[in-house]
Amino acid sequence: MPRIPLTWLAEHTGPLADVSALQVATDLSRIGLEEEALFGAQVTGPLVVGRVLELVKEPQKNGKTINWVRVDVGPEHNEELDDPADPQPGAERPSRGIICGAHNFVDGDLVVVSLPGTVLPGDFAIAARKTYGHTSDGMICSGQELGLGEDPSGEDGIIVLGRGHAEGLTGEPGDDAIALLGLADEVVEINVTPDRGYCFSMRGVAREYSHATGASFTDPAASVQIPQAPVGGTAVQLRDRAPLQGAEGCSRFVALEVHGVDPAAQTPRWMARRLTLAGMRPISLIVDVTNYVMLDLGQPLHAYDADEVVAPIVVRRAEPGEQLTTLDDVTRTLDPEDLLITDSDGGEGARLLGIAGVMGGESTEVSPRTSNIVLEAATFDPISVAHSARRHRLPSEASKRFERGVDPQLPQVAAHRAAQLIVEFGGGEIASSITDEGGAPTPAAPIALPLGDAERVVGIAYTPQQVRGSLEMIGCRVEEGSDGTLAVTPPSWRPDLTIREDLIEEIARLVGYETIPSLLPTAPGGRGLTRAQRARRAANRALAEAGLIEVTSYPFVGEGIFDALRYEAADARRDAVRLLNPLADDEPLMRSSLLQTLLPIARRNLGRGEESVAIFQLGTTALSRGEGSRAPVPAAARRPTDAELEEVLATLPLQTRSLAAVVGGSSGPDSWQGAVAPWGWADAFDLARRAAAAVGAQLEVRQCEHAPFHPGRAGELRVLAADGTSTVIGHAGELHPAVVTEFSVPARTSALELDLEALIAAAPAVVAASPVPTYPVAKEDFAFVVEQDVPAAAVEAAIVVGIGDLAENVHLFDVFTGEQIGEGKKSLAFAVRLRSVEGTLTAEQIGAARRRCIAAVETAVGGVLRA
Length: 867
What we know:
By secondary structure, the chain is of the alpha+beta class. Helices cover 25% and strands 25% of the residues. It folds into six domains: 3-41 and 185-213, 2-Layer Sandwich (Phenylalanyl-tRNA Synthetase, Chain B, domain 1), CATH 3.30.56.10; 47-181, CATH 2.40.50.140; 236-438, Phenylalanyl-tRNA Synthetase, Chain B, domain 3 (3-Layer(bba) Sandwich), CATH 3.50.40; 447-511, Phenylalanyl-tRNA Synthetase, Chain B, domain 1 (2-Layer Sandwich); 531-762, Bira Bifunctional Protein, Domain 2 (BirA Bifunctional Protein, domain 2, 2-Layer Sandwich), CATH 3.30.930.10; 778-865, 2-Layer Sandwich (Alpha-Beta Plaits). The protein is built from 21 helices and 40 strands. A seven-stranded mixed β-sheet has the order 28-31-32-36-35-34-33. Strands 5-4-3-6-11 form a five-stranded antiparallel β-sheet, with no helix packed on it. Strand 38 and strand 39 (825-834) form a beta hairpin. Mg(2+) binds at residues 496, 502, 505-506. Belongs to the phenylalanyl-tRNA synthetase beta subunit family. Type 1 subfamily.
């Protein structure tokens, strides 16, 4: 994200003395440059110029020598009287006493003093403090303490203003040093969309700011003096043997030499300050100038040590197996699609100078001994740069700009601007000739824009003056034909303008998005939630009321989850949908069961300190249609035919909404009454019945073996259809011990999962109202001995059939097996509630109902009433 110092912006737009960073951000946001962050002044409080009156060196016991300094900080800040407990030798006039450990200044020097109350970068507050036997009433500051970097003098110590080390800064004691050093700069950080790469420069942002506010705009590129130099200089050869998508990897390469630069020359403080505010670290004069010009104009530059480069410079694609050590000291194996900068004509001994548009190599980097340089300013293909930057995971300030498109008219301008700055501050001489291989691309054909199209697309009326004025404002050349159609040629710095809709978007943006009214459609009279929506909410609410917590998980899983859940090789849930571009390489599949993502959540929560788990989720699952089931992609030019749509739908994954829960550990907090019972397999079935009852359906449970459940403590959940048949819609029970161990959940953790869509479809659409009973209930208990494989649901159904309308409720409350019952047998005990809507039941009626019940169970399942 570009950072825009306001003082730098003001160079191109006129003074911004009364404009805050917030106002600038607001103005820029109106034209689509959104604010990312605001940075206020890094130094606040009384930071002033001081003159050293006297300096006394005091050796300490630790071997260190400190300076006890009397500093004149102006009449407004000097102390009138010395502290009697801290005598100040030689203090003949009001001043301040300060302890300082630096030794690069003497009596009479002008220095920068932060008085008590000053806050320096890093939220470092200055206060008077007792140290080394004195009261130090402030601090004499270095450049690093003020966020300015090292002293341009090259000395290690505080800033000295009075000996010419600060690029002509002057001042008198008491002067405001914040304004003198430019420390009051506010900075606006903006978010630039990929189609507006020209805003990665002060030039581009200043242009946009002038559009937003009407401020004057001075193009910094237009002020660069380009001498009429003969073409020659460093030999360059463009050899792109494998252009990407029909575009040359490098369409233009400008090389300009500068000789005799002083290697010891320092970056001027104002430039270093601007680079720091813009988020870049000052390094050396040559490197800083190339970065400064890039930030100002938008053209990335690279400087080579001319004494290390063997001409000619060759731009070519990499050979298989080639390696390059980049400036970050990492050796990278190159791809044949990487565009490289090399030297020595590509022959034996040729060196790789860098990855074009991304980063240079360390073999020819500028060093503290460099005095002769070659400046590179080129136009590289955005796609080639983007691929290389991502391939090597090497984003750089240069690649950010090349990826988004750089003005092809800038290379010569940027090269001369950088050369002039280097000569101005580092001496030397610019070569009399320049290399300009290739050339700027031919301007694209004008875009035809009928005057009425803007109104047709946006929906509001724009005058011809607004249409023409907006396009000319952004730099387009506009010519009007006899039929009212405009022929618009976009400027070189706007490669994103390719079709008429792009131009219309610019018109809407510059005239003002706020002029486009917000018209919300009138919503039709609502009919409330659909039946399915009500049912889903009811099922969720039922589990939440039972004490479970709803969670959400990503629907992506790895292939190892199937083995962790003990799926058999032929299990249909292994046919998961594989993603072509997964978010994570270790999770390339869509889940085919909610438990595949719910159990990892349980493990994570328990690993973070939870002692029990009771969670549920309503989400989608997907099953693949099988190999080769990729959906066709219809043409975008017309509506797909019904046959094409059917073909697309036939290949889509099988998706459904499922409801799953995991419960384990204690079912509640302990109390003075004792420990609470843990969650168990019976709770899983009860929760499934709760969800089904909330939807309006009833479940039938049958014992089964189904991964990932315990083979003896699990059952399938069935729902009865209108025709009397039952369909399996899910499973519940205790998890297999191996699964419990795999996911580190409490022993006997249980779970349930059911197809909620199938459950809702099986529930009656209309719920019949039950009359309120007015007669007393009669209670009877039955215990039937049946074969081990007879489901309890079958016995319950026989009881209901035998008793008839008098059966109000039937509930299984006990299952018993043992020697008393016999091998292969089990006892099922039911509590039955009998009630009549016609009157109080008599003993004869109750007895008759018991006999019918016993006979029905014996006939249906062979059950015998247990004595």
